[in-house]
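quick one before i forget lol
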Amino acid sequence: MPDSIYDVIHRRRDVRGEFTGEPLADDVLERLLAAAHAAPSVGLSQPWDFVVIRDRGIRGEFHRHVHEEREVFAATLTGEAADRFARIKIDGVLESTLSIVVTYDAERGGPAVLGRHAIADAGLYSACLAVQNLWLAATAEELGVGWVSFYREEFLGKLLGIPDGIRPIAWLCVGPVSRLSDVPDLERHGWRRRRPLAQAVHQDRW
């Protein structure tokens, strides 16, 4: 196990091509979900749910949709950007052991969610913290996670039978990996470079 939470944070990667497809023990999956469920939430609303997807048919249908959306995005690119994007793998939907979809229910804990009256998105932020908890727990377990964002929420809601009013906010590919890369994929492919911390820190005012 890593020595500290800082090590886990800096080793975490968005995994695409390193999944092995090996089985994931039920007790490990339970630990990941428990870590996600332990995330802080505005008004203790816990506005998330977790849909665990093992079915190859569902994953195959989602994978086809993802690659249709990839083509939509690719059509907006030209020149070097198009060439770089063509080399980037965008998902591990079929290669990973399973997937977990995290949803957000804006009505959970309502009608008066303590702490959300002035910032409507505070509940959505809470669900994202559950995603981060799961991701860090997986990294500590030497597992990989890949967040797939090439999809339309309406499509995914229908595919999984998600009730109206509940948003699917993250499709996460999860499973054992051959390794975690030292350098993030998008940086390695020259898509973007990370900003130094000094450029992101402001003192007292912007």
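fyi Strands lie at 48-53, 98-105, 143-148, 166-176.
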